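Researcher: Next sequence.
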Amino acid sequence: MSQYTQQPQFPQAPTPAAQARNGLGTAALILGIIGALSGLIPFFFWLAGILGVIALIMGLAGRGRAKRGGATNKGVALAGAILGLISLIMSVVGAVILFKAVDDAVKDIDKATSGSSASKEPGDGSAKGSGKDKGKNQGKGGSAGSDTSKDAETLEAGDSAVYDDKLTVTMSAPEAYTPGEYAIGHTKGNKAYKVTVVIDNAGKEKFDAALVTAEARAGKDGVKAEQIFDEEVGEVFTGTVMPGKKATAVYAFDTPADAENLVVEISPDFFHDASQWELKL
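Model: Next structure:
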């Protein structure tokens, strides 16, 4: 009998295959989708950029793992890398759009600020009160277009309010007006006066005249003077006044019979201060 007994041989179980590691590719695809969607909103350009970088790196790493046989989602990883690249591009575009919008907003604010204040330019003496005011202004050392009455004096008939952006508003002397039979805004027993307002855009930017408003007060107590509307007066400024062009509108106001003065206030828009004219009736 042999000293060593031969042991029986048993078949060995097959070695289980290594589990596929698809996490990188899947994560790259998810981050790429989120990054691309974020890139559609310019404000989130920073998020699209961060996710795009991560998705691109993970997608390329996942594709390399799939090539080595460690993953089975090569296509998913490639899609994630592509979406990551798209997210990066959209991030750059979004940043450009956002920064340009901010820059335009700053320029608009600067433009609005530069055109907000007005200086007084006396009339040429052709309108009531203009010659008197001109002499008064010259006596103070002022000149046309100077900033001599920005805070104190109210303009008179024929004077112009000249804004920093070279927008000029001029008002004529008041003229007695007889409202029509179907006029709106006129009270029986009151008097009516009309004025002509001219807007001269001597600046470099177009002016939206549709925002111009007019209000008036009459008499020593400053009673509100209603604007009169009929077939001859009551028109308003409309449209756009291009650089170098003018626009004209005629306003009529209802005043108490004993009123001796009419204060008319013209507000060009939200970016220009209102200017007032005190007119002698």
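Model: Residues 169 and 199 are 5 Å apart (CA to CA). Residues 23-114 form one domain.
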